[in-house]
Amino acid sequence: MKFSDSLSLRARLYLASAAILFLFAFNVGTHLWGSYARSESVMAYRDATAAASLVRDIEQALATQYQRVQVLSALRETNSAPLDQGDRQQATAQLAALSDRLRELGGLSEVDTELAFRALYKDTAALLEGWTRFYDRYNTQGQIAVDGIGPAAFDSVIDNLEALAETQNEVALNRSTVIDQTIELTDRITIIGFISSITITLILILALIRTTNTSLLRLKLGVERFGSGDLTFRIEEQRDAGEIENLARTFNEMSESLQTAMTDLRAARAEAESANEAKSMFLANVSHELRTPLNAIIGYSEMLQDELGDETDIDRDQFHHDLTTIIFSGRQLLALINDILDLSKIETGKMSISTESFNLAGLVVQVCDALTPLLAQNGNRLELDVTDARASDVYSDPAKVQQILTNLFSNACKFTKQGTISVKASVDDGDEKRCIITVSDTGIGMNEEQQAKVFQAFVQAEHSTSVNYGGTGLGLAIVTNFCDMLGGDVSLESAPGEGSSFRVSLPAAPEQAREVV
User: Fold this and answer.
1) Mean pLDDT, rounded, for 452-463
2) Taking the model in full, what pTM does it have?
3) Which CA distances in Å does 121 have to 101, 125, 137, 153, 155?
């Protein structure tokens, strides 16, 4: 992952803005530095120029004072006329002004001119002091000492002054060169900084546009794939950060939710289609189950009617057989209708429970005796074990228990030929008193897939089951619902070709029965 991709869009904008502001600040700083350097150089050049001009003025003033002193000294030797007080004061004031200008020159001096100025100041101060004494003693009698105010002293001051002037000129020239160099350097830095700022700003903008456009293109590709129905596609979240990463994650979560919803919808549709198919199969089976006993009832009834219409003697054995067939077919119809009505009541919540105390062993024996004819149809034999259920009564709904046992026993007889049907009943007097009913057979058995759907309403283990064995697929669904209503459960163990074993466990104590109700 590139560094730019690891930054959020906001961080990229902040980074680009900070870089642009830094470049702008750099340009402003460069301009201010150049302006300051230029100003300092100009000020130094101005001071150097002012110092040079002041040196010239001082030199001219010194020359004037020197000539005046020389003239007055010559006049005093030839003419003893005194000097006016006003002239003396004027001369003294001019010397004081000259001394002030010398100190002003010292204020303009720098490191480069300090030595030259000190030499000048020493000699000039001594010369001015000598001239001041000359004016003060001019009107006194006697010879005035001219040591320190003669041509030698004056020439020394002038030499020092010219040396200082030369130094000042060199400093001014250097300052002028520095100003030119500073102007050139600052202009060059400003131009380079400006061009660099524009270049870097353009690079940052282009990089920001490129990275953002790449991220948006990935989002666009993902949305297009989602829109085309490819809900398995996922936008790469780790390629981006921040807002774009959150947006990509939101799109992925939305796609995952849509994919889950579509999967659920397809499953619901398949389930609905399966339910419709099961109901259609149920209607077909019901029509067959209704038509068969009805045809038998109508056919045998017509045969009996014809026999009664004949004048011949009635074969009572045959007559009795036909009536038995009619009764059996009617009971088949009644059982079918009862199953449909029971399931309808269960689904609408109108099935009621009526609990009472009864002997489980007696109920099991009664049901097995009533269903003995079913054993003979396929040549099966019954193994009945109710030893563990004789000692105590149970508290439950005997009608529901009877229906559960009847449906399990009928199924075992239907799917077993020349085999054994085992029925075992027991009462477990443990911590929770329960009655256990187990119905086993040695019939065709079922695989795991068939076991998973055998307890569903309107569904049989195989579509061919109703053709080969008959039935509507309601018996085991009713068993499961009755067990749930009574607070119990039913389990199944089976293997193809090895038979099946159904185990029903129901609460048998009165307090447990009341909790269920």
Assistant:
1) 67
2) 0.44
3) 11, 6, 24, 13, 14
